[in-house]
Amino acid sequence: EEGLPLREADCGEYGGIGCNSRKIGDYIVITNVRKGLPADKAGMQIGDKIVEVNGRNFKGKSNDEVGEALKGAPLSKVSVTVDRQGEMVTLSIERQEIKMKNVTYSGLVNSDIGYIRLDHFMHGASFEVKDALVKLKSQGAKSIVLDLRDNGGGLLHEAVNIVNIFIGPDQSVVVSKGRSNNAFKEYNTLDPATDLNIPLAVLVNERSASASEIVCGAIQDFDRG
Q1: Is pLDDT larger for residue 126 or for residue 35?
Q2: Considering only CA atoms, which of 215, 9, 17 is closest in space to residue 122?
């Protein structure tokens, strides 16, 4: 969907190494290494600064640029040089297929408040949020916190479907416009809501972008949360 920045390349499955990172100063720094995945097996550590990927210098590059360089075909290898407290360490990491969850955590905050952490809007995000909501209600949740902090977005239709969990059908969630008449497109909810009435709070911060903004904006505009 050219010209529509709400749709991103991530589909939820790819050849990756299994770590999280953020930009600190000039470098991308590893903030989490998932146990048992390629980065962990190769010896990558939290705090490692990524200096080179396959011999290419990544000083000053964005997190997205480094992330794309680390991805590739499953079973292919990537060479990563990191600055580990002043020592240069080069790791050879064999990528494997990574299946990422969109809802990384859900549970009861107390006896009647349910919490859902949504980190991505990749394929299946709306199903995961719906399943989490149904499960939390069965456990006694009478209100829900949907956490979109640091969620940079993803697939637009997943955002619309997540809004649809809390808002009924035939509601306009977002409209895209362009220079031509053909570029106009309206995205509406299609299905009955899962729950029209449960109290809802949506958490966002300065790094909640794209599809996250669509969800929180629609929830606010419809006075649903």
Answers
A1: 126
A2: 9
Asked if 49 and 27 count as a contact pair (C-beta separation under 8 A), the reply is: yes
Question: Measured between alpha carbons, how far is 61 from 59 in angstroms, rounded to an integer?
Answer: 6
How confident is residue 45, by pLDDT bands cut at 50, 70 and 90? very high
79-116 per-residue burial string, b: 16 or more CB within 10 A, e: under 16: ebbbbeeeeeeebebebbebebebbeebeeeeeebbbb
159's tokens: 């955002």
Give 154-208 pLDDT, tens digit per residue: 889 999 999 999 999 999 999 988 888 778 889 999 999 999 999 999 999 998 9
Alpha-carbon distances, residue 183 vs 46, 68, 88, 100, 187 (angstroms): 44, 29, 50, 32, 13
Structure confidence at residue 101 (pLDDT): 84
Q: What percent of the chain has pLDDT over 70?
A: 94
Q: What is the pLDDT of residue 14?
A: 59
Structure-block tokens of residue 139: 């456990």
